[in-house]
Amino acid sequence: MSLDNRPHYSGGCQCGAVRFHVDGKLGAASVCHCRMCQKAFGNFYAPLVSVHRDSRLVWTRGEPKRFRSSNFGLRGFCGDCGTPLTYEAPDGVALAIAAFDEPEEIAPTMQWGLEGKLPYVDSIHGLEGYSTEEDPDAADFVNDIVSFQHPDHDTETWPPEERT
């Protein structure tokens, strides 16, 4: 919580070049299945949460590049790593839920764009699933991974040192 007892949220892109803070409440959280959102996120749908009109969104490191996806909408993304960050329209700004440092706190409550919903989305939860560590053929690969992803918290500088 911030000093004035308003909620405070932080997040950013995968590489850390763009970071944001929201001071105040978030609005509605949803997923959009429309084809434009699918393309913008490179995914089955776009999970988004609006920034409440009485809240303040501040870009604390860098700022998204923007693509005008329609006559009404802008799509914000990191120009370095490509992480989708925003949907900006005349009625406000929505942020990508997974870009938040604690996305588990932001559960969608509605769906939009059902006309574009892919026919298999509702059955994905029933697919057989495994944790990363459960794949014995990938164990050596997984154990050797060194992540260059920005951590899920604010950092004074990023990256911490040159990478090879």
UniProtKB/TrEMBL annotation:
The family database entries (InterPro entries) matched by this protein are listed as: CENP-V/GFA, Mss4-like_sf
Q: Which residues form the CENP-V/GFA domain?
A: 9-121
- What this protein is called in its record is CENP-V/GFA domain-containing protein
Record's PANTHER family?
CENP-V_GFA DOMAIN-CONTAINING PROTEIN-RELATED (PTHR33337:SF40), GFA DOMAIN-CONTAINING PROTEIN (PTHR33337)
Domain of life where this protein originates: Bacteria
Keywords, ordered alphabetically? Lyase, Metal-binding, Zinc
What PROSITE patterns does its record include?
CENP_V_GFA (PS51891)
Q: Which Pfam families match?
A: GFA (PF04828)
Say which family it is in: Belongs to the Gfa family.
Its lineage reads: Bacteria, Pseudomonadati, Pseudomonadota, Alphaproteobacteria, Hyphomicrobiales
